[in-house]
Amino acid sequence: MEAVSLAAALELTAGGGAGLSAEKRAVLGASLLLLQRDYRFERVWFWGRIQGVRGAYYIAEGLGSDRAAPRSRLYSLNCVEWSLLPPATKEMVAQAEQLKGRFQGDPSFEYEYTEIDAEDAERLFEDGKEPVIKEEARLIATIEQIDKAVGIIPRGAFVKTPLGSVHENRNFEGLSLTEAKKLSSYFQFTEPVNLKNKTLLEKADLDPSTDFLDSLEHDIPQGSWTIQLEKGGTVVVLRSLLWLGLTFYHIPMTKQYGYVYFGTGEKNLDLPFML
Amino acid sequence: ERGHGPYQPHEPGYGLYQPGYSPYDDQIPDPKSLMLAIQNAKAYLLKSSTTSGLNLYDHLANMLTKILDEQPTNAVDIIENISKDVKWAQFQKKMDTLRDEHEILPTFEAAEKRKALFLKANGEEDEELEEEIGETPLPNVMETAFYFEQAGIGLSKDESYHIFLALKKLVSVQPIQTCRFWGKILGLEMNYIIAEVQYHEGEEEEETEEEEVIKEGEKGVDEVEDEDEEKKKEDEPPKSTYKPPPVIPKEENGTGANKYVYFVCNEPGKPWVKLPPVTPAQIVCARKIKKFFTGRLDAPVVSFPPFPGNEANYLRAQIARISAGTHISPIGFYQFAEEEGDEEEEGEGGRDTYEENPDFQPLSVAEMVDSLSTWVHHAQSILKQGRCVWLNPFQKSEEEEEEEEEEEGEEEKPEEPDELQQEIGPPLLTPLSEDEGIQNIPAWTAQPSTNLIPQYAVAVLQSNRWPGAYAFASGRKFENIYFGWGHKYSPENHAPALPPPVQAEYPSGPEITETRDPTLEEELAFKAAKEEALAAAEEEEDEEDVEDEEEEEDD
Predict the structure, then answer these.
(1) Which of A58, A77, B82, B521 has the fewest beta carbons closer than 10 A?
(2) Is the confidence at residue A167, as pLDDT, over 80?
């Protein structure tokens, strides 16, 4: 969610019971602004909070002029001091996927692989390093996975210019109520995967400036999103069932939307059994 | 060579600088034909399109009007979008009224319901005021929300207030002694808001009578069936020796897992629905499955092992498990009531009642956070059987023993099952330090709500076994609440129960077991042995015959 609209957005996503205390809200208002100044971001998003066993990580993302470029991510333990996270690499993501269990809350904590075979260890750790992974790397990989899988925006909110960069669409006035209840009106804000597989007939209806991303209706597994109207039907709230805790909100016919993650940072692998 | 000086009329390019002339004009036409050209151009622009009925002239005029009115920055970059918007606006008007009416309905209806919460019922105002000033079962939801908000937990203030009013409505309708906002469980289509309630004594519902009537009806049917079976006994295929495990009766309303009654609604403003009491079979099954709630109480729960009930029962079972596992209070707040001569009862199940301690001395927040032994469970834990107090299902009452004696004469005596071990759970008011963690994660995470202002901090506990269960304590105040999806945490993936092994169709014995066919040598050897025996037998018979004949001759 946008840092400037933090307070209002938190009220709208509080349906799941998770939010921020008044103290955190106050300090974020100031420190996110300072982040924007220090790192010269054009936009700062408060990404959310990953709850560990002994502490929590607060994550912020900064965007440059091309909104689809890889975002810089920062984390903090107390919302006052922020540390920049290095970008995620494929090895990091592959290694972190083997881990199970909660985050500890200490970024220098090292996980040991107890169940990993020798073959897998060789595959994942090519240099023959010790099969340990720091919690910081796991954090990076988890944020990357969540953003890739369930970071969503409403259709039409961003446009792709002919030069390839992505900007906010100034003509976007919000989805209508009927559109907002459909999964196809929301896109995953990441490199599209399914777009090329669409038939020519479908592609003919698409508008290349706004429909350059994957829509949610083909998300696997089907039914991994819940759409609800809250607050008497004035806010559309989407919650992901694959990453429990990801909440997206949008007020129809207005420009307000955003997503935030409040959870434990674990993928819900039992999803097919639970639907 | 020559610079681009002022162009002469005979030179190409002259038109660039003259209004009304295109740069391709080599010669300037006469002023009269100029006016004609303008009129032709305008007539062309005014020509209506055959497909849409618009014309370019009006469209350009509208577009420029809109741009000049709104004055967007960098208009040239978004000119195409502005053009599209102007065209779209033309069409929207015709369909506007129909579509708007359709869309408005759901939101307005919901707003009506919420407004109804805020209206005071007519004619009851004076009476209510007197009652409210005294003790009311209505909990102070806003105060609880304030404390939880210190830790960043809770719903938005609007929703909390709506829930407050919805609870007030519930309290005024039902004869309730104590009421508490238990929490919110999220679902796929709708969510559940849950209230935990205790009735006044003696105000129980009449459900128990209905259940007894059904049981008696079933018994009559069973007797008729038995008679029919006796007649057909010879023709029947072998009866199954399968005896289903005995049904464990549910606990009485007001005790154990059914201590509290729960009411749910989907949104504040919608009517409250009472959840049925929970049976041990439902709890045992709920432990094995993991399903999302849809938000409709009558939805079926499709799972393996098949859940005995619909979503309302599953919801009630999960609520019972969460309450038993995560309802905690500061040590000393509750104490056991002093009773006389209860040693026998204690031996069976331990104490199950508690009362508030009038001499409670609250501990400081730092102490509450540092050590988990300053908190205790005040909800009875549920045993593996599915009840809080263990019951031996094979203990027969006198009536059942008489029935069995009658039946024994006709059927074989059923095998006695092994005696069940009595299950003992942790006693009431056990401190949290006894809670087992999962792998290397402690069962609870304790934090003060703020590190900056410790004087007014609140001690907050989060459960790691039931993510979403929270508790706070500050001085004499404490509260538990649940916000989540209603599932237990397990670091391992959920493994559904396997189907049971296939039942044996018949007992296998030597008479129906296949054996190998004898080989040729064995057959010949057998034949030879048989012939020898036959020859020996014939000799004996001959002897006997001779003897018989001799005997007969004698007679």
Answers:
(1) B521
(2) yes
Helix (H, G, I), strand (E, B) or coil at B461: strand
Residues A95 and A74 in one domain: no
Inform me whether the C-beta atom of residue A8 falls under 8 Å from chain B C-beta atoms.
no
- The minimal CB distance from B468 to the residues A17, A170, A270 is found for A17
Q: Say if CB B333 and CB B361 are below 8 A apart.
A: no
Mean pLDDT of B367-380: 84
Q: Which domain holds residue A196?
A: 152-263
Q: Which of residues 245-274 of B touch A (CB under 8 A)?
A: 267
Residue where a domain stops, chosen among A44, A68, A85:
A85
A53 to chain B, any CB pair closer than 8 A? The answer is: yes
Q: Clarify whether residues A259 and A156 are in a common domain.
A: yes
Which residues, including other chains, have CB under 8 Å from residue B78's CB and lie 6 or more apart?
A170, A171, B72
Task: Please judge whether A229 and B106 are an interchain contact, meaning their C-beta atoms are less than 8 angstroms apart.
Answer: yes
* A99 and A81 share one domain: no
Q: Is residue A170 included in any domain, yes or no?
A: yes
Task: Compute the distance between CA of residue A17 and CA of residue B152 in angstroms, rounded to an integer.
Answer: 9
Whether residue A147 is contained in a domain is answered as no
Using pLDDT thresholds of 50, 70 and 90, give the confidence band for residue A171.
confident
Tell me the whole-structure pTM to 2 decimals.
Answer: 0.76
Alpha carbons B412 and B399: distance in angstroms, whole number: 20
Q: Across chain B, how many H-helices and E-strands are there?
A: 13, 12
**Residues A232, A251 share a domain:** yes
Q: Tell me, yes or no, whether A111 and A203 share the same domain.
A: no
- Whether residue A269 lies inside any domain: the answer is no
- B268/chain A closest Cα distance in angstroms: 10
Interval A121-144 mean pLDDT: 74
Looking at the structure, tell me whether residues A156 and A72 fall in a common domain.
no
Domain assignment present for residue A258? The answer is: yes
Chain A interface includes B485 (CB < 8 A): yes
Rounded CA separation B191/B185 (Å): 6
| pLDDT attached to residue B156 | 87
The predicted pLDDT at position B358 comes to: 78
For residues A212 and A231, membership in a common domain is answered with: yes
pLDDT of B339 reads 55
pLDDT of the residue at B29: 55
Please report the ipTM that was assigned to this predicted complex. 0.88
Residue type, A103: F
Structurally, chain A folds into a number of domains equal to: 3
Q: Which of A68, A85, A102 is the last residue of a domain?
A: A85
A116 and A172 together in one domain: no
CB contact under 8 A, A102 and B464: yes
Percent of chain A with pLDDT over 70: 93
For B420-474, write each residue's pLDDT tens digit. Answer: 667 777 777 888 877 777 777 888 888 888 888 888 888 889 998 898 899 988 8
How many whole angstroms from its chain centre is CA A209? 23
DSSP β-bridge partners for residue A49: A58, A262
Per-residue pLDDT tens over the stretch B249-278: 777 777 777 888 999 999 888 889 999 998
